[in-house]
């Protein structure tokens, strides 16, 4: 039997398993969600609160953050808003530890904060790529590290992060983004091996395309994209059930699984036909004369 399925029942979005999971698995009492001012993070925070969880929302944009917290309170939920820039790793660790003491202990910490492709004007930009890695990888790891020590002391808790199906193979046009998510997947897997024997759980949420204000700016097709509310509900189901990995939608999970096993030469030839490959090639400077 697959180890992930042994840990929790399968959850099929929109099916009877989804309702069963909600009945069987209770929400955490207190949760911290980073990147909670908009998009998937905001939707997950609202869904957690709707299931009775006290949610601590953290993000850089204070106005949007307070708006999300107000939306939770208007629905009868409990929310605390805290400003946080995950690019400052040392402050992130300190804040998470301080907030954990202040609230009485988080049962769930979700590193959701993330940014886009790490490019400017279609070409590789070292500064933009470093910024992306600071947020998507270093910031996420700092968030989890801040919660690790107090959770280990209590002997229970869930550490979680949002990765991406884009991290399953190098994608033309989004190399830095795919690399950051692939690295975060490996980090979570390593962390899981270390802390599960000590009573903690590590959950990886691995979505495909989700309709948000950010993805609305994409100039390419997003096959099988989900509404953010649907994605948030499935993510919270997985967090409550403490599934090790929850990837969706199944169509892109299947497609990326096939891509992962293709020989490098074949994958490279196929990837040249993807929209990101063409945009990247068009943006590259022409070779100098005699080069």
Q: Which strand order does the major sheet show?
A: 3-2-1-4-7-8-11
Q: How many beta strands in the DSSP annotation?
A: 11
From the 3D coordinates, which CATH architecture would you assign?
Answer: 3-Layer(aba) Sandwich
Distance between the termini: 56 Å
Secondary structure class reads alpha/beta
CATH class: Alpha Beta
SSE string:
HHEHEHEHEEEHEHEEEHEHHH
Question: Outline, from the CA principal axes?
Answer: globular
Q: Roughly what fraction of the amino acids lie in strands?
A: 15-25%
Portion of residues in helices?
A: 40-55%
Quick one: CATH superfamily?
A: NAD(P)-binding Rossmann-like Domain
Description:
With 291 residues, this protein is of the alpha/beta class. It has one domain (3-282): Rossmann fold. The protein is 51% helix and 16% strand. Strands 3-2-1-4-7-8-11 form a 7-stranded parallel sheet, with helices on both faces. Strands 5-6 form a two-stranded antiparallel ribbon. Strands 9-10 form a two-stranded parallel ribbon. A hairpin with a 2-residue loop joins strand 5 and strand 6 (123-124). Helix 2 (16-24) packs across helix 8 (228-241), helix 3 (39-50) runs parallel beside helix 4 and helix 6 packs parallel to helix 7 (175-195). Mean pLDDT is 87; it is low at 1-12, 19-24 and 281-291.
């Amino acid at each position: 039997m697959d180890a992930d399925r042994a840990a929790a029942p399968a959850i099929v979005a929109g099916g009877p398993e989804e309702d069963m999971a909600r009945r069987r698995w209770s929400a955490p009492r207190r949760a911290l969600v980073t990147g909670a001012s908009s998009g998937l993070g905001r939707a997950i925070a609202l869904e957690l609160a709707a299931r009775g969880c006290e949610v601590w929302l953290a993000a850089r944009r204070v106005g949007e953050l307070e708006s999300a917290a107000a939306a939770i309170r208007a629905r009868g939920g409990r929310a605390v808003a805290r400003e946080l820039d995950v690019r400052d790793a040392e402050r992130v660790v300190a804040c998470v530890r301080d907030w954990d003491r202040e609230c009485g202990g988080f049962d769930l910490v979700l590193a959701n904060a993330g940014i886009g492709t790490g490019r400017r004007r279609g070409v590789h930009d070292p500064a933009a790529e470093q910024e992306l890695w600071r947020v998507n990888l270093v910031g996420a790891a700092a968030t989890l590290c801040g919660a690790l020590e107090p959770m280990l002391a209590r002997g229970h808790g869930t550490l979680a992060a949002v990765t991406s199906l884009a991290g399953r193979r190098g994608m033309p046009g989004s190399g830095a983004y795919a690399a950051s998510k692939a690295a975060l997947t490996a980090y979570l897997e390593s962390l899981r091996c270390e802390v599960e024997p000590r009573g903690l759980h590590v959950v990886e949420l691995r979505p495909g395309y989700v309709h948000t204000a950010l993805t609305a700016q994409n100039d390419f097709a997003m096959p099988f994209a989900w509404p953010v509310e649907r994605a948030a509900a499935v993510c919270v189901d997985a967090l409550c059930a403490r599934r090790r990995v929850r990837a969706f939608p199944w169509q892109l999970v299947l497609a990326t699984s096939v891509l992962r096993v293709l020989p490098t030469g074949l994958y490279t030839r196929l990837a040249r036909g993807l929209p990101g490959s063409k945009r990247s090639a068009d943006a590259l400077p022409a070779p100098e004369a005699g080069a």
